Amino acid sequence: MLTSKHNPAIKQIRALRQRREREATGLFFIEGIRNVTEAVQAQAPIEQLIVAPDLLRSQFAQDLVEQQRQQAIPILEVSGEVFASLSSKDGPQGLAAVVRQQWASLADVRPDQGLCWIALNAISDPGNLGTILRTGDAVGAAGVILLGDCTDPYDPATGRASMGTLFSQRLVKATWAEFSQWFGQSGFNLVGAADSASSHYRDYAYPQPLILLMGSEREGLDAEQQAQCQALVSIPMRGQADSLNLAVATGVLLYEILAQR
Amino acid sequence: MLTSKHNPAIKQIRALRQRREREATGLFFIEGIRNVTEAVQAQAPIEQLIVAPDLLRSQFAQDLVEQQRQQAIPILEVSGEVFASLSSKDGPQGLAAVVRQQWASLADVRPDQGLCWIALNAISDPGNLGTILRTGDAVGAAGVILLGDCTDPYDPATGRASMGTLFSQRLVKATWAEFSQWFGQSGFNLVGAADSASSHYRDYAYPQPLILLMGSEREGLDAEQQAQCQALVSIPMRGQADSLNLAVATGVLLYEILAQR
Questions:
Q1: B212 with B253: CB under 8 angstroms?
Q2: How far apart are the CA of B136 and the nearest CA of chain A, in angstroms?
Q3: Chain B contacts of A34, Cβ < 8 Å?
């Protein structure tokens, strides 16, 4: 059992807090019984489980660890103190994992999958992204296409906000140019959200297969992106604010699309 | 101009980061041109403006400060460094304010105001609360009733998530017992959200006047709260997750209520 916070293996896991390190290794860190269970159930490529026997009280979780051990998944046992040094939770549960990132490509984005795909342009807030993954899971979306300079879906804050749904949604990363080129031959319909759009989001019949395109928190969609869309829809607003939170706006639109099926 | 971070006036403002201090003084701190502008426009009781002339570039904001000076609002000028010690932003804009909290009472909750009222039971996340205030503003809700042990709406994180809508929504704080007693004679209809509810949220005709009751992030509504509701509605979920983010669920329901008007 590792008892030193300064052990190189522990330092390496802790380094996964940095996006640069996650990108260099293709790995990420998840913690908590719920998230690790979701990873196992989704058959995510777990490289290593991290277990603190002092902290891990749940029989369910102990059985899960045993099961993984029998499937030859490497298990790193650490002291409660070392575990706490890896954790960003107040009351760490004693179970975490290092998981290999899984990226799909645009070629994997096909018309016969789920309610729709969600494309996000330059989303910057990890909490918003995690919340959108959670809503995407709830409506049965296929996955999220991250366009341009987006926050990292493997950021721990995204994982927390996704409440274990990170593994249920496929993830694709592309530049706008790559997306735009692929889109022409994809067979998909692209519908974007814009405050200025004349179509009320409830009066529009969402075509299939569909990619719902949402702009960034600050800038929305630019003129070129709006031009690429078959249709732009707007969500009415009656108050002082000039926009909704991005995850709320995406949720309102996804539930309208779901209601039309 | 104050140039010391240790000046007692500055320390007192900084102490408003603590909920205890906010509750003891009845004051709170807002920052940023947008938030201060919203406070002025909403005629919120501003006790003091805090201005860092080194940082405040915007002519619009400088005019706003001048206008407030003419209306005898106390103005505290501070150095950029002192301002940064008060700010929780990376690039502080040099404008902030200390504002008196405004609480309405249950007696102020009347049937003729806005789309509906939103009652939140034991909401714990300031970001969720701020996002719900922002959505409440967008749909034209009257305000938010905070039931039981809720996060503080005057927490800076709530203010940030509310995007300046903190002043457009009335705020009421009550225990469940107080609310429950008042409710009987209020003339309102109470509709709650629950995963287990048999009414699909789109098939239900929301009565007027309406209070939409949402449970806490972790626990939802308890049996007594559910029993108090005329109706319970559920939002369908198709995926792994067993719930939506609270602010997303509230947004989906509020936009359904708006669509029915």
A1: yes
A2: 8
A3: none
